[in-house]
Amino acid sequence: MVKASVNVHKERLYLLARLPPRTDPSGPLKQQRIALGHSDTPANRKVAEKRRAELQRQLDQGTFAWEDWIEVRTGNTWKQAIDNLYRKRVVNGRTGQNTWEISYMGRLRKLPMTAVVTSAGIQEALARYERDTASYKELFYLLRDIA
Fold first, then answer.
1. How far is CA 64 from the centre of its chain?
2. How far from each other are the two terminal CA atoms of the chain, in whole angstroms?
3. What does pTM read for this prediction?
4. Domain boundaries, the chain
5. Which end of the chain is less crowded, N or C, counting CB atoms within 10 A of the terminal residue's CB?
6. pLDDT of residue 98
7. Sequence-distant (≥ 6) Cβ neighbours of residue 125 within 8 angstroms
8. Which helix (H) or strand (E) holds 14?
9. Mean pLDDT, contiguous 10-residue spans, the chain (147 residues)
10. pLDDT of residue 143
11. How far apart are CA 110 and CA 124, in angstroms?
């Protein structure tokens, strides 16, 4: 019986199990990792444990397929990027909640939250302000952190 486990590598969470090759599902099993896309935190470990149980269930039932586990990534949306910036600046950093809500989100709120972050999107956001204003400079530094 194949056992799946949660593995931490360079502060990122992975699932570890003996799996068939991605190119040949009928090939011999070998030890492989599946990236979960989460950093190693207690909350993310709970998510990883649920995903491990799901993988274990598929392996036990013989229904494992790579298509269920490989995500096609197109990049972060503005909402995901802003959430990451919030964690960096407010939760783990020195920025206060009021500063975030009033100063930063006042400008970031105008971005298309469901769109993917691109260099063209960054240029478009900066083009809304005159280059020599404080608003431009503040937005510039926020978007630089996002990029």
1. 24
2. 44
3. 0.51
4. 5-68, 78-146
5. N
6. 92
7. 110, 111, 139, 143
8. strand 12-19
9. 87 92 86 88 90 93 86 74 90 89 90 88 92 92 89
10. 92
11. 11
